[in-house]
Task: structure prediction
Amino acid sequence: MKKFDISTVILVLGAVLPILGGLLHILIIFGGYYWHQYFHAPQFILESVSAGTWLAPIAGIIVASLFILSGLYALSAAGLVRRLPFLKLGLLVIGILFTVRGLLLFHLIYWKPEVIDAFRVISGLIFLFSGLAFLVGTYFRWSKI
Result:
C-alpha cells in the first residue's frame, strides 16, 4: 500500500473542489435557465440560454475544462496522474488565482455587503481553501515535483 505524506493529502483536497466545480458547470448546462440563474451566471449567458444560442454551453464547457484541468495539475503534483507540462508554474498560477478569487469575498463583504449571499460566501471560501491548498501543497512538495 502506498503511503501518502501530508503534501499529497493537501494537494488532493485542493484538487477535489475544482474538479467537482467543473462537473457542476457541466450539469448547469443541462439544468437550463434556472440553474444558470441560481449559480449567478452573467446576464449575457442567461440571454444565450434563453435564446438557445451556443454561447452558454460552449462557455460552460470551457469553464468546466479549466476547473478540471486545474484539479489535474494538483493531482499531477501529488503523483497520482502523469506529470503535466509546466507543473510548478501551473500550480503557482492556479494557487495564486484561486486564492485571490477567494480573498475577493472579504473585499465584497467590506465594500458591498448588500450583494453577499450564501452562494458568494460558499464559492469564495471554496476558492480560498483550494488556492491555499495548491500553494501549501506545492510548497511542501516543491523538491519532489
In short: The mean pLDDT is 96.
